[in-house]
């Protein structure tokens, strides 16, 4: 039919997402993206806009696909914040261990390359990180602790989560990453226990 796209948009996005994931925004050239997707520059621009717009579409696709696993992990343990955090980090480790996927995390890699991103793309990366922090904060909400303690814990958990991705990209063994995740879970559990006992804010 006239005007009908002669390619699978979802498949093209998946392939472009993998290029950005493996190479980072700066090193994902239009030629490389075209080779990966099988599309010429004209088709890429026609379907997705410019490189920056395509990158944002890939970020959203990544967040939708893998963010769902994190959301399910958190909600599966409603009322048990420490267990929810453990499951949240386990979702990241499961992705890291998947041999069919690139190492690291597209969002973590993009955050590290923020200086190379256009303003809109940088804002999208920050928004995705903030969304992750809000989901973790919601999972911590049932804990009997002051709001500022839960806020700090949520930021801490997101920081650990992103660190797991960065360390995996640097070749850190999964066994060591799991040790980091266990310590994070213990830190959250101990902090919440102190708060429940009236200990308040964790020591600096």
From TrEMBL:
Pfam families membership: TetR_C_13, TetR_N
Domain HTH tetR-type: 6-66
Gene Ontology MF annotations: DNA binding
Keyword field: DNA-binding, Transcription, Transcription regulation
Ranges of the DNA-binding region feature: 29-48
Signal peptide as annotated in the record: none
PANTHER family per UniProt: HTH-TYPE TRANSCRIPTIONAL REGULATOR YJDC (PTHR47506:SF1), TRANSCRIPTIONAL REGULATORY PROTEIN (PTHR47506)
Name under which the protein is recorded: Transcriptional regulatory protein
Organism for this UniProt entry: Streptomyces griseoaurantiacus M045
């Amino acid at each position: 039919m006239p005007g009908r796209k002669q390619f699978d948009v979802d498949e093209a996005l998946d392939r472009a997402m993998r290029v950005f994931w493996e190479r980072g925004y700066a090193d994902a050239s239009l030629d490389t993206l075209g080779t990966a997707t099988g599309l010429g520059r004209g088709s890429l621009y026609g379907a997705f806009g410019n490189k920056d717009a395509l990158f944002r579409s890939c970020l959203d696709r990544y967040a939708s696909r893998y963010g769902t696993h994190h959301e399910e992990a958190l909600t599966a343990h409603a009322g048990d914040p420490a267990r929810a955090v453990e499951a949240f980090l386990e979702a990241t480790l499961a992705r890291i261990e998947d041999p069919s996927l690139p190492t690291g995390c597209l969002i973590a890699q993009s955050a590290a390359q923020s200086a190379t991103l256009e303003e809109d793309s940088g804002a999208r990366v920050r928004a995705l990180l903030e969304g992750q922090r809000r989901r973790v904060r919601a999972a911590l909400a049932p804990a009997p602790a002051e709001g500022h303690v839960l806020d700090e814990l949520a930021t801490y958990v997101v920081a650990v989560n992103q660190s797991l991705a960065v360390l995996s990209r640097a070749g850190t063994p999964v066994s060591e990453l799991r040790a980091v995740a266990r310590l994070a879970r213990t830190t959250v559990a101990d902090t919440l226990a102190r708060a429940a006992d009236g200990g308040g804010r964790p020591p600096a």
